[in-house]
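Quick one - inputs below.
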Amino acid sequence: MEMVSITLDGITKKFDDFTALRNITLKINDKEFMALLGPSGSGKSTLLYTIAGIYRPTRGRIYFDDRDVTNIPPKDRNVGLVFQNWALYPHMKVFDNIAFPLELRKVPKGEIATRVREVSQMLHIEDLLDRYPWQLSGGQQQRVAIARALVKEPDVLLLDEPLSNLDALLRIEVRAELKRLQKELGITAIYVTHDQAEALAMADRIAVIREGKILQVGTPDDVYYRPKYRFVGGFLGNPPMNFVDAEVEIENGYLNVYGSRIPVPAQYRELTQKLGIKKVLLGFRPHDAEVVRGATEGLAGEVYSFEPLGREQIVTVSVNGAAVKVFAPEGEHFTFGEKVTVKLREDRVVLFDRKTEKALEFLD
Amino acid sequence: MRDVETRPRRYSRIIILAILLASLPLIIGFTLLVLSSFSTDMVTNLNPSSFHPTIENWINVFHGKLATTGGIRANILRITLNTLIVALGVAGVVTGISALAGYSLSRINFRGRKHMMVLLLILHAFPGVALIVGVYLLYRLTFPQTSDFVRLYSFVYVIFARAALEIPMSVWLMKGFFDTIPWEFEWSGIIDGASRIKVWRKIMLPLIKPGILAVALFAFLAGWQDIIYVRTFLIDQTLATFIEANIEAEFSHMPLIAAAGTLYLLPTIIFFITAQQILLQGYSGGIKG
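Output:
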């Protein structure tokens, strides 16, 4: 397969008065698995369909490698698209569904048969070719949809929430398989999802999108541990990042969280001095803290609730009214209203500017 | 068939009874017509003693013998064929045009689309009779000079004129059917390399098959039943004009006309039964999600 990278250069898309995409600039490398992650209505699907050529950008250009495809019709872009609802043609058997793109390209009959068989073996659906889509289970239909997208050997594979119609267990199974398939084929893939777990699990890089804008692009580690915005921290992770208001005491290098005082984390000491911002948001992940009893350095609060989940439990601690979720080991016992302290893992703490909700290290 | 089961049972009995009562005149009327066609005398006087069973009327109808005495004949097979030509012609024209127009109104964003949809509704509000003067004027203006094509011309004209009356509503119906098909089917086809027209033919049309059948059936029945346009424009006779012409003729033998009337009714009954099944069945496939 040839090299294909995708460059989006300042893409803006307007529908009448509604601006779906605002000045999106993004580069997707060859053979990369890029996830477009965002809540519903964020414009991530619009971006995917713009790359596919179904929508034409109002402004900006799209390049496949060096080729400007902005005004090229979808059929000449050689992309494969898997839809959320799979869009299998109900009046065609599985074989004809997969063969359809090849028939449109006037590929000879014999070659169509070989290629359909090849791709269906790869996806383990070779026994289903004689059936109609409605005779298949959700997981099987999904494989057929992927087979149909792959059979024309596309340069780019576009996936629009392909797993969201599967039940939870199957989704986790398919997710591993899809990741493997993408790497085996070495195909550039763009994957739209609103499920942060899917994005973290599968993607090489994640672009977090909100209201038509890219907030952050980075590896799963980057966006998970070093969120650029409060929104990113709150959107990724289950349960998501905790946020509490804090005041920086610049003169002595402490953070004041409703009376609890903790030292400013090492990575922020210089920055807070330099920026001189006082009102910040303290962000930390539920697994980067622990609930301890007795007076230690940390956030003082009381146990609001606790939810055992087998291997671990989620303890909700009320820190002066702000709910904070922390993972605790399975054996520990809590009582409602118990006074506790939330001890933070300092190097994982992220401080955000309360006004712009941007992490301090990203402030200009 | 499922429903919420909250309605008291006795109500449904009352409703069924009311429906039966309301449709009784129709049922009696059609029963008398069918019975008369198998009798030597009409039974429409509601006197059972006038029913003398025979199938002679039906034999005569197919032989085109209009009166029991005398030699007046009509080629009833030809007349039935004429009716079929008009009905199928109307069905074909209406289905073809509305399948294309319905698709464009549902899926293509072109200038004047909204106005066109409103206009179609207004057009539908015009009864065919109200338009007939204008339609007749056009008929005369385009009437062929040579008599060779006159009969063909009158067929083509009546088919298109009658179809024009059906098209506004059919286009709306068809648009409604296209509206129910998720865009993803179309996008999928376009990305795979199909042109718009190919998407329409290979993907959309099979998906709205029940809609096409419904529109075709209604158009067929409209053509089959029409009397005003056929009488005004068609040189040949159809079953409707044939019955109408003979119902008051001195020589006509009424039970025979009853047989012709029953023959005329048959497709209506057959098609309504099939249409009902098709419409109820819908499309079993569909899309997930």
